[in-house]
Amino acid sequence: MQTVMNLLLQESPPNTDAYMVAGYIVIFGVMLIYLVSLVIRQRSLSKDLELLEDLESGKK
Amino acid sequence: METKPRLLTIIDTIAVILMIIATGMVFFYAPTEAVMGNAQKVFYFHVATAWVGMLSFIVAAIAGIAYLRSSDRKWDRLGLASVEIGIAFIFIATVTGSIWAKPIWNTWWTWDPRLTTVTIMELIYLAYMMLRSGIEDPDRRARFGAVYAIIGAISVPLTFFSARLYRTIHPVVIGSGDPSAQGTFDMTPRMLQTFMFSLVTFSVIFVSLLWHRVRLGKLAEKVEQLKLKVMA
After folding, report:
1. Domain encompassing residue B122
2. Is any Cβ of chain B less than 8 angstroms from the Cβ of A19?
3. What 8-state DSSP symbol labels residue B28?
4. pLDDT, tens digit, 9 for 90 and up, residues B5-44
């Protein structure tokens, strides 16, 4: 009852800052992970390509 | 790998600048919502990521149609790139939606029509990735992927309109919705500006990521072809 009264009588917005912070950690975190995954995959493929090109030139 | 096109560098730079401005607008320009408090600020990027996710799946379907018509592998690369980005962004939208829901609905999750359809949509595209990884022949993989992406795209309008067609507690900010929706709010001009700016920002980010992912796909294809050549 007291909680309901407090909610009804409150003048300032409720403190939901923690949820906002959590939300933005997820947004930036997942985007960063995706970006890093792109970079890692690109580097790994570039290395593979280099190696395969060496192998191919050795074959000739 | 081919040198990075100048236009891509420009798009990357614009994306970073827009992201900084959008983040600044969310935290320092948009007012705090009176009922929900600062948790409402999650909404700006939550909707923008959902928009990018749905746009990705539509692009994948268009790429699928283009592949089936032309059999040009570039459309397959575009489709795969688009689905991968869509999965990541729909994941962000789902998790941030859940975070927002806790203080507003007093629960992390409920099987509301919108939440259910978005989960089904995400699972459909996760299955798309699994399907592709199970097919070795590149042409067959591309053909199956194209057909799957076209059929899977049906889930996009279903998800988008679910909050408008069915009785739902998920708020519809634009175009009104069910009056029983929990968490609906009227946007002030500053909120609307921040919201629109976020949509534009994430659209640019989508173009940038898509281009990078397509280039990666091209490189992967080159490696795959060279591997076959060396092994022969």
Report:
1. 7-171+186-231
2. yes
3. I
4. 999 999 999 999 999 999 999 999 999 988 899 999 999 9
